[in-house]
Design goal:
The chain is α/β, with parallel strands linked by helices. The protein has one domain: TIM Barrel (Alpha-Beta Barrel). It contains 5 helices and 9 strands, in the order βββαβαβββαβαβα. Strands 3-1-2-4-5-6-7-8-9 form a 9-stranded mixed sheet, with helices on one face. The structure holds iron/sulfur cluster (SF4). Iron/sulfur cluster binds next to loops.
């Protein structure tokens, strides 16, 4: 019997948030997450989705990749990124990622950092969050994951407050994270009213919001060894548009 996964959506777009930003990418958004970050813009993936067999998912990925494979050869396939929700909540995703690596795809996973990343195929590029204080989920960081990171992985800090910035600066220095892998900093874009899911955590009291400009200028002033990034898809498309 075929293995199944609960899938929110599979679509082709541009990778928007990592050192791979701008490249064609097939996104596999899996349903469910056990965190409730204050800024989460994909709350629709907490529960919306349908069960799909791994074979059907592979067929859809092949269909979306076909124009690229036909035009520029198998070594220029689009990226495949597993995201969510939290992809590590579904163990059947791991062998699917392995199969895609075997087929020559560059496979990325975006994970909250709250789950064990060590079981992933070493060829999978792990883009792992370290949750900052304003997320309301800082206590969920699984610090043991740090020792499993490789230079091909990436750590992402999503920052919405001055407290987030100071926290991340300290964590980067304490763990010498700039010697581990690329470090990404994203600014929290305020959610639209329709994106504000009632189950999301509140930003803890007493924190001071930081603007995108202030965040960029602090990074420069402190010579922080990070890559500042904007959420590219929100610049190109409407901030709440799905499937892009
Ligand atoms: S880890 Fe946080 S931001 Fe990511 S899907 Fe879960 S609640 Fe949303």
């Amino acid at each position: 019997m075929s293995e199944t996964l609960v899938v929110n959506e599979i679509y082709l777009s541009l990778q928007g948030e990592s050192t791979f930003a701008g490249l064609p990418c097939i996104f596999v958004r899996l349903t469910a997450c056990n965190l409730r970050c204050s800024y989460c813009d994909t709350a629709y993936a907490f529960t919306e989705g349908s069960k799909q067999t791994v074979q059907d998912m592979l067929a859809e990925i092949h269909r979306l990749a076909a124009p690229f494979a036909a035009r520029i050869g198998e070594h220029k396939l689009p990226l495949v990124e597993f995201t969510g929700g939290e992809p590590l909540l579904q163990p059947n995703a791991l062998p699917l990622m392995e199969d895609l690596c075997d087929e020559g795809f560059t496979v990325l996973i975006e994970t909250s950092g709250a789950h064990d990343i060590s079981k992933l195929d070493p060829r999978v590029r792990r883009i792992m969050d370290l949750k900052c204080p304003s997320s309301g989920e800082v206590q969920r960081n699984r610090w043991e994951n740090l020792r499993h990171l490789k230079p091909t992985d990436e750590i992402k800090f999503v920052m919405g407050t001055r407290e987030d910035y100071e926290w991340a600066k300290q964590i980067i220095a304490e763990h010498k994270l700039d010697t581990v892998c690329p470090l990404l900093v994203s600014w929290v874009q305020p959610l639209l009213p329709e994106q504000q899911d009632k189950s999301l955590k509140k930003v803890p009291a007493g924190q001071t919001p930081i603007s995108r400009l202030e965040l960029a200028e602090r990074i420069i002033a402190d010579a922080l060894p990070v890559r500042f990034q904007v959420q590219m898809h929100k610049v190109i498309w409407a901030p709440d548009q799905r499937g892009v």
